Predict the 3D structure of the following.
Amino acid sequence: MILTVTSKYLNSCMQFPLVSRSGRIRKLVAEHRDSDISRIELLSLPGGAESFELAAKFCYGVNFEITSANVAQLCCISDYLEMTEEFSKNNLGSRAEEYLESIVSKNLEMCVEVLQQCENLLPLADELKIVSRCIDAIASKACVEQIASSFSRLEYSSSGRLHMNRQAKCDGDWWIEDLSVLRIDLYQRVITAMKCRGVRPESIGASLVNYAQKELTKKSSLWNPSSQPKVDFVAGSSGQERLVVETIVSLMPVEKLAIPISFLFGLLRSAVMLDCTVASRLDLERRIGSQLDIATLDDLLIPSFRHAGDTLFDVDTVHRILVNFSQQDDSEDDMDDASVFESDSPQSPSQTALFKVSKLVDSYLAEIAPDANLKLTKFIAIAETLPAHARTIHDGLYRAIDIYLKAHQGLADPDRKKLCKLIDFQKLSQEAGAHAAQNERLPLQSMVQVLYFEQLRLRNALCCSYPEEDHKPMHQSWRISSGALSAAMSPRDNYASLRRENRELKLELARLRMRLNDLEKEHVCMKRDMEKSNSQKFLSSFSKKIGKLNLFGHSSSRESSSPSNSQRTDSKVTERT
């Protein structure tokens, strides 16, 4: 800004209110007192002509109101013009400072408005500590409001204990909307101060979500996965959005579940689209992996933005997320919530999370399988990320592999075999097994395995239908054919066990036949002896054998039917075998 002063006023200008109250202008006028025409240049005037006009009004007694909208300008212009108490009592500098300390610092909304005005007054506003004072006031007020809100939600339970009502609405976070108007650098400093003051992580997370949505939803494709265009967005975007994403990622609280997973996925899409730093993307992937069990299929469908010949979806990013999920330690640091991870037993929440993620991965594989550009190695890498015990049933994995085989009909036989080795055919449901048995896209070896396990399942069903025929040897045979034990035995070992038990049954039947033949021969010999003997002594002694003879005759007549029964049993075992 330039002030023009003629020579005839130079001697008397010291009496002007503006010159008398401003130390800077007084010095400049004194330097040009001997010139005919003097130009006073005010370089880098904070706030421009508007600020200088306010200072001039103050000097000449023109009434105007000091408000939160102009107090930052007045503080900066008064410091620049050196309008201090040294040159005039109750000068502009002291008046602006008084208003800032007594009025603005006690009101959070006014502090935010002053910070917003300071965006165009940096770095002078920072040097005068206007920014730091407002940030400290905002953090303190937010913390106090949060404590007051927490006390308001305290209530007594039926047992007389004092507890927090988590269902009641939290009214201490009304400042979240106010902070969204700040520029990203000032917003970062405010959130950092709040974290140091102990503001709840959930409140910090809610503020980050609100700020990001306001700054980034101008690009609707960043947050709407169903309308992602296949274009190179990075070339046409400014660095402002990239700076916002990277800053928000750095401000995220470390506590798990403090930020919704849907927001994390939206931010990850933005980071990929805007080509943010690798550190920011890896941090987002790690956070998503720690709570992947609550994600949805739409969350995982991250489009691939850059290469025209690449896959439709960003498979590499999803693979890294799954690796983070698989490698996470349940006993780990502050990221773990004790209410979520408590034990490693099969019924623990971590095991439940593993089952949920396995279903999610199978659905994701089925969604990306029709992509003609999807390589077999990437498909297998996604499927093998989870441990073997994660899938209790393989119907979803079988469906995804079948879709991939249908979309990639030119796949070589070794590749098809390698792909189908991922499926445990014993873990297919009856419907999936029936479909696989007739699926010509599967390799022949896989179809044989399906038929074999379907036969075992049928035998189990027959065993359950006829429980009265479960003799001890047969019962053991059915148990070995059951799903629980057959899962621990190879098909060859299972078949050898059945043959061995069949041989043992046949040997037992042969021993029974030999015993029956011996009894029949003894009976014939005794009848022959009776016909040759005529003496009374022999008859009296033989009378004792009559009972035995009748007994043998009765048992032989009863057991004479045994060979036919044994033959039926033998034929039944042979048929089952």
